Amino acid sequence: MNETIYEGSQLIQGGEIFRRLDPPARLSVFGEPVAHSKSPGFQNVALQFCRIAAQYVRIHIRPDELASALRSLPVAGFVGTNVTIPHKAGALLSMDEVDDYARMSDAVNTVVVDGEKLVGFNTDGPGLQRALREEFYADLRDLRVMLLGAGGGAGRAIAVQCARENCERLVLVNRTFEKARTLAQELATYFRSDRLVGPAERLEAIPHQESALKEQLAKTDLVINATSIGMRRADPPLIPAGLLTPNLLVYDTVYSSGKTRLIEDAEAAGARVANGLSMLLHQGALSFEIWFGRAAPLDIMREALKAAG
Ligand code: NAP
Q: Is the minimum distance from the CB of 152 to ligand 1 under 6 angstroms?
């Protein structure tokens, strides 16, 4: 596999280096950092399996290069690109058109080159939804959801998905409470219905504090972690272990080979758990479908992701 990390300048200067590869690079992930991205592994396997003469590469893009790099994609012969940290919000500003998910999430993770035009999509929310079906056989519309990290990029995309899927309840939790409250105001129209779930409000924003979590967990089916916390041993617990109960489903969007503290605590409490690898897989499969207008070879991609560890 091509492990090279290309630079944004190589794209901005016309992209000759990408056209010369065999097969030519016609897809990429833009990020800073970008070395850790698992997307090339499973996207390249999918391209080979589908006999598409193209490869998917990592490109290190600095924030001040983002707009020029995106504008260079048509000239360099790219089909499109994925966009990851920290460029998802910035990419939105360079798009000629965007889909509803990207507009509402204020972020683009998938770009399609359509002639000279750039069209932006966001597959994070729909990817999570498919992951929940696969992991828990559950649909957002049947669930009372507590979303930790609702004010972050991934959190916002997931909140939009929950709203559009008309989930039964949504509790937006964020360390910086103001972000959760603003998002709740933006999504309020989706929850103004006569759908009754008892005395509780269908949409609430709460600060990330133990007393507020405790009250809301009693009215929750699914906890989603969309904070960036959980990778390091020294990370604080997102939810005190004593508040986790066996009836909960717990989905941690963090993907790593090891278990996050939230997953460990939830498992110990008897809850059903899953980590973010399935979301990564499905958001990538959805990108593939958008680029090529055909189903992604999901099993092959899943195997490649598992093998990468
Ligand atoms: P982000 O925009 O930087 O957001 C980070 C979020 O974490 C914010 O809500 C932030 O709260 C919260 N946070 C940070 N430190 C915290 C702490 N000590 N206590 C409580 N909350 C804290 O990051 P992002 O791009 O949304 O990514 C978030 C996570 O999603 C990452 O772990 C990433 O790996 C994961 N993700 C997974 C997938 C997948 O496919 N599985 C896709 C996308 C993202 P404040 O607003 O208060 O700062």
A: yes
